[in-house]
Design goal:
- This protein is of the alpha+beta class.
- It has 2 domains: 2-223 and 398-475, Zn peptidases (Aminopeptidase, 3-Layer(aba) Sandwich); 225-279 and 324-395, Alpha-Beta Plaits, CATH 3.30.70.
- The chain has helices at residues 2-11, 20-42, 54-70, 150-164, 187-193, 242-245, 252-261, 284-292, 297-304, 314-323, 363-381, 406-419, 434-442, and strands spanning 74-78, 82-84, 90-92, 96-101, 109-115, 135-137, 140-142, 171-177, 204-207, 218-223, 225-234, 240-241, 326-333, 344-345, 348-357, 386-395, 398-399, 424-428, 445-448, 464-466.
- Strands 1-4-8-5-9-19 form a 6-stranded mixed β-sheet, with helices on both faces. A 4-stranded antiparallel β-sheet has the order 13-15-11-16.
- α1 (2-11) packs across α12, α2 (20-42) runs antiparallel to α4 and α5 (187-193) runs parallel beside α13.
- The longest helix is centred in the N-terminal third of the chain and has 23 residues, at 20-42.
- The radius of gyration is 23 Å and the shape is globular.
- The structure holds 2-acetamido-2-deoxy-beta-D-glucopyranose (NAG) (5 copies).
- One 2-acetamido-2-deoxy-beta-D-glucopyranose binds at residues 86, 388, 390.
- One 2-acetamido-2-deoxy-beta-D-glucopyranose (NAG) binds at residues 195-196, 200, 441-443.
- This is Peptidase M20 dimerisation domain-containing protein.
- One of its GO terms (molecular function) is metal ion binding.
- It holds the Pfam family Peptidase_M20.
Length: 478
């Protein structure tokens, strides 16, 4: 709904823009079709992190291209070549969709970005419903990708469809990818290649892949970057028996856990020397945003079953989570993880961790700092084991410098109109690599205007998207 209003706001000056009530009536009548489409999209397991699911990602791109064609868009599916996997094999990257609906070259052009791939999801992880079967309960639509980001992409297409039934008084472009969850492989190069063609007549870029902090709607004006590391440690050619080798070999898993444990202290402070040097200071204007933002720590804790945060106030939590770096340990590949009591000494383990980067931190500098630090720590341990540290995802942080410009004003007004409330302005703790890239390469004003809820559980179990917005009882997903 906000996206629809954003489009309407841009068209205010243009004679013949449809009246709000005719458009809203159309939306009312078509709700079930919209939800049915989302159900179909969710049923496609477009998990970009799993090479075996690659053809599902491609299928998802094809389906989206079809939907765009039905809207009368000119659609190009751009092939990006191959992805080299950790094991040396190569598989095709999913195509990127570049599409456009040009009604009149004189009119403004808004370019929307979103992604059609999803995070992995298994019922056994603790889902209450099958993750790839959309189920509606109490006004929320549950399923992987409902909020991140299939539902948000569909909301854009539905908004355009609803406007088109009357008159689409502007031009729209679309960039949709299928590798966002693993680092947007190949997309950055494509944006550079198409800067003087596809992007040249774009006036504004709107990214629909974010959530609000609370039930109060908001606009995201910055994102953290991300570096994802693998630490591989190998102690033997094959797995060993702890009865035969325990106590006499340098175990790979022990080395790895030692290394992972040197990365941050118990307060969460990252121990890599120099890592905080470049972190940008927060302006007073931003401090005000954080003070005004609606964010209920108690609600979030209750929802996710978290006992306590490391910080006590809303402002501290928001600032730590979005304006400073953080380190998370994600898992150990190759370690025994099944139930039971196997007495194995794994021969080779791969530890996985990532660092979210704050604005001004340079991914290449941080990568070097982290790798040097881990090698130094490993040397202290005197282990003969083979170690290999690689950085597999590198995404830059970003913060907008034109939050007072016309795009943000349009977003603010759209929110005001739908919800009758001021928009919260905040930064995103997560990473959307294409944000900074769009801004850096094209120089066009860029804004994140998502419709995800604060408790939608992106990447988690029981991901959902609300059908209605609580604040206004208007349709959120349309
Ligand atoms: C996607 O579309 C392309 C081009 O039409 C086609 O060659 C390919 O088989 C389709 N793939 C899937 C998985 O649907
Ligand atoms: C349904 O949603 C309402 C409003 O959010 C809530 O009060 C109620 O407990 C929910 N019911 C169930 C069964 O989840
Ligand atoms: C991309 O094109 C815009 C004009 O549309 C130009 O201002 C900008 O400098 C170009 N970016 C690069 C990296 O060449
Ligand atoms: C942040 O502010 C402190 C104290 O005013 C200053 O020493 C530091 O250089 C600033 N950091 C950056 C990245 O500008
Ligand atoms: C380390 O791992 C990377 C990525 O898997 C690989 O390309 C590289 O050859 C490895 N280096 C060593 C020394 O094993």
């Amino acid at each position: 709904m906000i996206i629809l209003l954003l489009l309407l706001f841009f068209t205010k000056m243009i004679a013949g823009a449809p009246s709000d009530s005719t458009v809203f009536g159309y939306i009312e009548e078509h709700q079930d079709i919209y939800v049915q489409r989302l159900k179909e999209w969710v049923s496609i397991e477009s998990d970009s992190s799993n090479p075996e699911k690659r053809c599902q990602v491609v299928k998802m791109m094809n389906l989206t291209a079809e939907q765009l064609t039905q809207l009368g868009a000119t659609v190009e599916l751009v092939e990006l070549g191959k992805q080299k996997l950790q094991n040396g094999n190569e598989i095709p990257l999913p195509p990127v969709i570049l599409a456009e609906i040009i009604t009149d070259p004189q009119k403004p052009t808004v370019c929307f970005y979103g992604h059609l791939d999803v995070q992995p999801a298994k019922y056994e992880d603790g889902w209450l419903t099958q993750p790839y079967t959309l189920e509606e309960k109490n006004g929320s639509m549950y399923g992987r990708g409902t909020s991140d980001d299939k539902g948000q992409v569909l909301a854009v297409l539905h908004a355009i469809e609803a406007l088109q039934k009357h008159d689409l008084p502007m031009n729209v472009k679309f960039v949709y990818e299928g590798m966002e969850e693993v680092g947007s492989n190949g997309l950055f190069k494509l944006v550079e290649e198409r800067n003087s063609t596809f992007f040249s007549d774009v006036d504004y870029i709107v990214i629909t892949d974010t959530s609000w902090l609370s039930k109060k709607p908001g606009i995201t004006y910055g994102t953290r970057g991300n570096l994802y590391f693998f630490i591989e440690v190998e102690c033997a050619r094959q797995d060993l028996h702890s009865g035969s080798f325990g106590g006499v070999v340098h175990e790979a898993t022990s080395d790895l856990i030692f290394l992972l444990n040197t990365l941050a202290d118990s307060s969460g402070r990252i121990l890599v020397p120099g890592i905080y040097d470049a972190v940008a200071n927060i302006s007073n204007k931003e401090k005000e945003y954080f003070e005004k933002a609606e964010y209920n720590l108690e609600e979030i804790k209750a929802k996710f079953g978290i006992k306590n945060f490391k910080y006590n106030t809303k402002e501290e939590v928001l600032i730590q989570n979005t304006c400073y770096p953080s380190l998370s340990i994600h898992g150990i590949e190759g370690a025994f993880s099944a139930s039971g009591t196997k007495t194995v000494i794994p021969a080779k383990v791969i530890g996985k961790f990532s660092i979210r980067l704050a604005p001004k931190m340079d991914p290449s500098v941080v990568e070097k700092q982290v790798i040097e630090y881990l090698h130094m720590k490993f040397a202290e341990r005197n282990s003969p084991n083979r170690i290999n540290i690689t950085c597999v995802i590198k995404a830059k942080p970003w913060v907008s410098t034109d939050t007072d410009g016309p795009l943000y004003l349009a977003g603010k007004n759209a929110i005001k109109k739908v919800f009758n409330s001021e928009a919260d302005f905040f930064r995103e703790g997560g990473t959307i690599p294409i944000g900074p890239q769009f801004y850096e390469v094209t120089g066009k004003s860029t804004m994140f205007l998502g419709i995800g809820g604060p408790d939608d559980a992106h990447h988690g179990q029981n991901e959902k998207l609300d059908r209605y917005s609580e604040a206004s009882s208007k349709y959120l997903f349309l």
